[in-house]
Amino acid sequence: IGYQEVFVEKIIEPSKKSKTSSMSKTQLSSIMPNNTKWIIECVILKIGQIRSLVSKSGSLQRFKIRDASGATEMVVFNDQMESLAVDKLQVGRVYRIENGIMRTANRAYR
Questions:
Q1: Neighbour count for residue 42 (Cβ, 10 Å)
Q2: d(CA 54, CA 105)
Q3: Distances in Å between the alpha carbon of 78 and those of 17, 20, 33, 35, 66?
Q4: Beta partners for 67?
């Protein structure tokens, strides 16, 4: 998938229902940049440390995710970290991720 990052809106366990669960799943490699209407099911491979942003106030956390089509990083910022309950996510578990945005990663912020 290259150097892409996914910025997400919703993360839920696949066993739980959501309002958009009738949407068909998309493969990670098929998500087009700036498209925000998709659902992927992926496994979390790695959970990064919470980092403070240098250029502005706030924080972010990175997650390495994979589905059958490839792997990429998911990035969660500020109050999304609490609303998405990222502290409860576990390495090796499968989650449904919905309605985010995929962008080319800015290497300056790695």
A1: 26
A2: 17
A3: 25, 24, 22, 22, 23
A4: 70
The answer to whether 44 and 90 have CB atoms below 8 angstroms apart is yes
Pairing of strands 70-77, 4-7: parallel
pLDDT, tens digit, for every residue of 16-63?
655 555 568 889 888 888 788 888 899 999 999 988 887 777 888 889
Alpha carbon 28 to its chain centroid, in Å, reads: 10
- Burial class for 41, CB neighbours closer than 10 Å (0-12, 13-18, 19+): middle
Gap between the terminal Cα atoms of the chain: 17
Distances (CA, A) of 51 to 18, 61, 72, 86, 100: 30, 6, 18, 14, 20
Rounded CA-CA distance 85/12 in Å is 9
Contact 104, 4 (CB under 8 A): yes
- How does DSSP classify residue 28? G
